């Protein structure tokens, strides 16, 4: 998949007469609702024998439109989003820089510059997609702006767990540690990426050596607690249990850490980039008065982790 970055005003050399089918959306999480939009665009492109393109935006619009300083934690930062979109058979990903000038475009100008200008003959988006200044452009009005130059497909609402499948709902479940709901709405296990760094190395002294993960700063982590996870390192995936917390048994620091105990694994992997799949929340972080209590709890966590994956694999 080719990735092309766009910046307003759109450079003349990036305008295209080559026909494409274009899917529109922010697509944070690339959840099942997003997948329905993108898959429909892929189908429409194959029907016409043209390339399929997706347009997303960077950074999150709220960071630009908010009147106060705002940071956003993503379900899928841009690189991860691109990977998931590529898996769906898309040919081109347009990443449009979301700036003040871009956000001020009238709906008609957005259509002229970023739909017609890119050569779209068919546009696919979700029912609640909006475009142009203040989101004034709606899917209902897009055919009026098209003026017969491109067709429009609106993908309807996808519901599950008594709610709309949306990034907002997934964030809510993630904030509650309900990984089963998160993964059901995503259509795959929630993942975070990071690099293995040196930690206190305390785990190895009590029989539970852990990999300390430096997670991408703009990625949303599950809440503090102990989880059944899988970790992929050097192309191999292992069952594991992961702690998100502050190591409160040993210290009172305010630095959040992510530590992974990889089952049946004994190798030096410092510096490696890893992917963690989050499958199940077991318990909150607990403070113990002695090492014996901590070790007993970790042994119970390991037993529960093995049981979880044994059941999941059957």
Name of the CATH homologous superfamily of the largest domain: HUPs
Radius of gyration: 23 Å
- Strand adjacency order, main sheet: 1-4-3-2-5-8
Quantity of strands, as a count = 16
Biggest beta-sheet profile:
6 strands, parallel
Order of SSEs, N→C?
EEHEHHEHHEEEHEEEHHEEEEEEH
CATH C-level of the largest domain: Alpha Beta
Tell me what the CATH architecture of the largest domain is: 3-Layer(aba) Sandwich
Keywords: ATP-binding, FAD, Flavoprotein, FMN, Kinase, Multifunctional enzyme, Nucleotide-binding, Nucleotidyltransferase, Transferase
InterPro entries: FAD_synthase, Riboflavin_kinase, Riboflavin_kinase_bac, Riboflavin_kinase_bac/euk, Riboflavin_kinase_dom_sf, Rossmann-like_a/b/a_fold
EC number: 2.7.1.26, 2.7.7.2
GO molecular function: ATP binding; FMN adenylyltransferase activity; riboflavin kinase activity
Short summary of the structure?
Residues 185-310 form the Riboflavin kinase domain. Belongs to the ribF family. The protein is α/β, with parallel strands linked by helices and 314 residues long.
Structural topology:
Elements: E1 2-6, E2 20-24, H1 32-48, E3 51-58, H2 61-65, H3 78-86, E4 92-97, H4 100-103, H5 107-116, E5 120-126, E6 130-131, E7 137-138, H6 142-146, E8 151-155, E9 159-160, E10 163-164, H7 167-175, H8 179-186, E11 190-197, E12 211-215, E13 225-233, E14 236-245, E15 257-262, E16 273-283, H9 291-313
Parallel strand pairs: 1-4, 2-3, 2-5, 3-4, 5-8
Antiparallel strand pairs: 6-7, 9-10, 11-12, 11-16, 12-15, 13-14, 13-16, 14-15
